[in-house]
Amino acid sequence: MAKDLICGMYVDENKTPFKTEQDGTIYYFCSQKCLDTFLKPQAEMKKLRYITIFSLVLGSLTAVFEYIYKIQFFGIPNYVWLFFLATPVQFIGGWRFYKGTVDAIKAKMANMDSLIAIGTSAAWIYSTLYAFQGILWARILPQVTAGGPEVYFTESGLIIGFILLGKYMEHIVKGKASHAISKLLDLQPKLATVLRNGREEQIPVEQVKVDDILVIKPGERIPVDGEIVEGYSAVDQSAITGESMPVTKKTGDQVIGATINKSGLIKIKAIKVGADTTLSQIVKMVQEAIVSRAPMQRLADIVSSYFVPAVILISVSSFLFWYFVIGLSFSLALTILIAVLIVACPCALGIATPAAIMIGAGKGAQNGILIKSGEYLEKTYKLNAIIFDKTGTLTKGEPAVTDIVPFDSDQKNVLQLAAIVEKGSEHPIGEAIVKKAQEEKIKIPELKVYETVSGKGIKAKYMSRTVLVGNRMFMKDNDIKTDDVEEQIQKLENEGKTAVVVAYGNKLIGIIAVADTLKEFSKEAVQELRKMKKEVWMITGDNERTAKAIARQVGIDEDKVMFQVLPQDKAKKVKELQDAKKIVAMTGDGINDAPALAQADVGIAVGAGTDIAKETGGIVLIKNDLRDVVTAIDLSKKTVRKMKENLFWAFFYNIGLIPVAAGILYPFIGILLNPIYAAIAMASSSITVVSNSMLLNRYKPKLK
User: Fold this and answer.
1) How far apart are CA 393 and CA 609, in angstroms?
2) Which residue has the higher pLDDT, 668 or 136?
3) What is the pLDDT of residue 144?
């Protein structure tokens, strides 16, 4: 059974006649109405393509018969034939501009369509009057055409054709953005294999519920987000996180929906389904980023709102000046009016920033970086202070054995004895010791009798001897001196590690150091940010010694360490930096980071973190890789550069050519800007902006 993407109804693929194929994927629908609704975006683009071709072909024919080969069939003048060629373009090709103008009038404002409708209508009306003056009303305009073109049918037709060409280019970019979203949605499998009453059953993925147990065979896509409850495999997460290599997954690890199970059979418990899955959230964030308006775009919108009335005023004033003051012929003065209206049309201004945002947000998603809005995409490159939470962000957030220092023994023996005693412990340090022993494949016999002293250590009997695992105080309480190894204990503690002393048979045999270890790429990310001249800070609730030890490992200056900060005070620390005129990013993963993420200019949530952190952050790093902070800043910089370049080209074409269109060169070199060239210039500005934005598709992260 397939799901109708429009109404959600399940349909039989073998029976329904309503289907369509796109990019190799067949989509099924319950009715013609749902199919038409699905096809509407593609139909709109197809319609625009046909109208653009229609307008350009008829406009070109008009130009041929007006300037190259004049026709006069059946005694009908050439101008009348031109009228029959130009009029369909004016009212079929140009219908969208008239409709847009009417909508603008209802809203009591002027828009881009107003300029096009007024300019082309002026050209068409004048040309029509001239073409039919000898037939319908003799001698109405005989004296006004001297010194200029007789008709503007070519101009009105080709102006509409070229402007439609620019709009078609806009649709191509928007189509690529929506196509990218469609491709993301296609990643999710249509069916899932669920265990029900001990039997495997295939159901539509939409019917999977939280806590269902799903079976995923090698080569299959994982239907929903879940946790492995049985099995071991390598999972290809490249489509979601951008990671090039498959990631090893075992029981207890989480998997992401739409990723590919590469090797072993696994069973997972569904954790997130439907709109809550990572894939659905990615699609939602990309869509929101595409439709959001960045500050630079809002500025362009404000400029456009004043720009359009100003252009109408300039065009009318130019016409009045040249016709009544200078005494230029009516047709030449009209040429100036039309040229000003057309060349100033700010179509490119309207797409200058959205085009860059669409592609920038899409490139971010491809690289495992979700940018929630155009505002964050624009703001990120300005950051000059990056704060990292320590636990779970810079570090793995769980203690691990870092050092084993033996005395009159060997490392394996020290680790084995400590693990035997700690096997039943639920303390994180004890669990870290046991985990290390298991990784080393050391046998750990189970003891039934042991004594735990809270805050100090554990005591047990093994092979008829006493084993002690704990701190200095615990050893002292059991008459074991640690003075001879105090220097080594302090050295480990100065490195931010917890020193666990191990004794066997009333004799000190070794020290095991346990610490929260750095994530794989934390140091590389910090170093690259410092190269980019960004201040890098660390914030933690840990004590000064532990905090500064981690800072030294990762490469953060000790004066940039904020330690013993309570969760409720993290946002205050962010505010302090903002008060010092810093543009601040907060990078964190936990619930206690949420207020700081919200306070920061840009909150960067680590993807493996809590939902509230991801909800609060403006940027989400899916891969849990801090190098993506560098990529986010770099991508923001490249995207904003494209925005600025686009705005430059938009204003260059519009503002730079307005004086030329208004006739500033005419007194000096006798040149007026033909409205056709004005339309070409205006369409070129849109094409330039779109093409320039599409160069962002070549972007590759600085760090891989």
Assistant:
1) 9
2) 668
3) 38
- Which tokens is 447 given? 């003891």
Question: Per-residue b/e over 434-462, b at no fewer than 16 CB within 10 Å?
Answer: bbbbeeeeeebeebeebebeeebbbbbeb
Residues 6+ apart with CB under 8 A from 82: 62, 65, 66, 127, 131, 151, 153, 154
Per the listing, tokens 């847009």 go with 100
Rounded CA gap, 323 and 338, in Å? Answer: 14
Mean pLDDT of 278-299: 62
- Of the residues 389, 516, 625, 634, only one is catalytic, namely 389
Q: What DSSP string runs through 445-486?
A: PPPS-EEEETTTEEEEEETTEEEEEE-HHHHHHTT---GGGH
Position 587 scores a pLDDT of 94
Which amino acid, 652? F
Distance of alpha carbon 441 from alpha carbon 425, whole angstroms: 19
pLDDT, tens only, 391-415:
888 988 778 899 999 998 899 999 9
Phi, psi at residue 281, to the nearest 5°? -65, -35
CB atoms within 10 A of CB 480: 17
pLDDT at residue 317 is higher than 90: yes
CA separation for the pair 392, 412 (Å, rounded): 29
Per-residue H/E/C for 21-80: EECCEEEECCCHHHHHHHHHHHHHHHHHHHHHHHHHHHHHHHHHHHHHCCCCHHHCCHHH
Instruction: Supply the mean pLDDT for the chain.
Output: 80
d(CA 630, CA 501): 41
Buried b or exposed e, range 246-268, using 16+ CB within 10 angstroms: bbebeeebebbbbbbbbeeebbb
pLDDT of residue 604: 92
Q: Is the pLDDT of residue 445 over 50?
A: yes
Residue with tokens 């000059």: 384
State how far the Cα of 424 lies from the Cα of 410, in Å rounded to an integer: 23
- Residue 385 has φ and ψ, to the nearest 5°, of -140, 120
389 annotated active-site? yes
> pLDDT (tens digit, 9 = 90+) per residue, 183-215?
666 677 888 999 988 889 999 888 999 999 999
Say if CB 48 and CB 66 are below 8 A apart: no
